[in-house]
# Entry
Amino acid sequence: FSQTFGLGGAGMVLLTLLVVLPWLSVAGGFDVPWLRTLGYVLVVAGGLVVLMGALHLGDALTAMPTPRHGAGLRTGGLYRFVRHPIYSGVLAIGWGLGLRSQLWAGVGLAVLLTVLLHVKARYEESLLADRHDGYADYRDRTPRFVPRPRRGQPGR
# Structure
């Protein structure tokens, strides 16, 4: 319990810090307007990805990395392209907030969030592999966070 709560709770703390960071008096920033705009785009796109991933999971959705008992392995929808679309969306939000803040501390928090979600995903994947016989094949053919072009499907 403490490991799963710690992984989920730490992510929430990092996201909260990224949200409030612009209102804190933190030194060390940069002024690149197009990165601020990219940040806003990432926040909106990430929010949509989180929503779509959560809707696809339905009642199997949980904030903890431990899969719900009786929930089947999801490999359709956004899960065709990445194993963790909700984490992908959270990463887009985190990086968007970090870039929007125009503070090096914001970028640093986004890096920490990336490391945390990588660790959380690895832990969750070990649980999924134990629970679902087909998970190893799914893991081998589907990237973790960032989709890659499909091979053998030109023009798609």
User: Anything to note?
Assistant: Helices lie at 2-20, 33-57, 85-101, 104-131, 135-141. The two ends are 43 Å apart (CA to CA). The chain has a mean pLDDT of 87. The longest helix spans residues 104-131.
